[in-house]
Specification:
Length: 223
């Protein structure tokens, strides 16, 4: 078993397991909120709120949860490094596609209700996140997968790739939190049952992000 961190005295294994459970909890809360309280999901509907619901699902679950799982792949997938890399790249690609879909549904909703685009901090953070995420994925793919940079270049770029990935991931969390806050205020949810679900979703997203970040700095454990 590899030595444990001198600072934290714990391996990444229990942290990633806890983060997986948080991902399931977030997914469950989002689905309950959108399907039970918000009327369902749709790309095309006379009820325009369903289009916005699709945006929330794609960004919170499709983008953030999959991106977090991708970051943890090197610590949570019990396989050789090449397999872990395949999981890392594939899950990030799924997150990117979901994120692009989430941006599309947001613009589609604004267009159909005839409101202006890109007017809030939430929309600014979200657009910056998706653009940086796409650039990060492309740089990582061409540097580490195909055609692949020279070993010395990879070694120099790797710590910046890790730092950039975590920074963008926490930026995504910030965008999600501002989106949830906007929704709660606009709908005047307060401490209603729906309001509590929205609040707990935000809290769990933050704790999930902490787990993802912590797992990236802890050594992988073998039990």
């Amino acid at each position: 078993m590899p030595p444990k961190s001198r600072s934290f005295q714990i391996s990444a294994t229990p942290v990633t397991m806890f983060a997986h459970l948080l991902a399931i909890a977030v997914t469950t809360l989002v689905l309950v909120w959108l399907l039970h309280f918000r009327g369902g999901l749709a790309f095309e509907s006379a009820n325009k709120g369903k289009i916005l619901n699709m945006h929330a699902l794609l960004m919170a679950v499709g983008f953030i949860v999959f991106a977090g799982e991708a970051i943890m792949a090197y610590k949570s997938v019990p396989a050789k490094r090449k397999v872990q890399k395949a999981f890392h790249v594939t899950l990030h690609l799924i997150a990117l596609v979901a994120g692009v879909g989430g941006v599309y549904t947001a613009f589609k909703f604004k267009h159909e209700v005839e409101e202006k685009d890109m007017t809030s901090l939430h929309s600014w953070l979200g657009m910056i996140t998706i653009c940086l995420f796409g650039l990060q994925w492309l740089l990582g793919f061409f540097s580490f997968v195909f055609p692949g940079a020279e070993m010395s270049a990879r070694s120099s770029y790797r710590p910046w790739h890790v730092f950039g990935g975590l920074a963008i991931f926490f930026l995504a969390i910030s965008a999600a939190q501002t989106g949830l806050l906007e929704t709660s205020i606009f709908l005047d949810l307060g401490l209603s049952q729906e309001g509590l679900i929205v609040n707990f979703t935000g809290l769990l997203l933050f704790v999930f992000a902490v787990g993802v970040g912590l797992s990236s700095v802890l050594p992988r454990g073998h039990y």
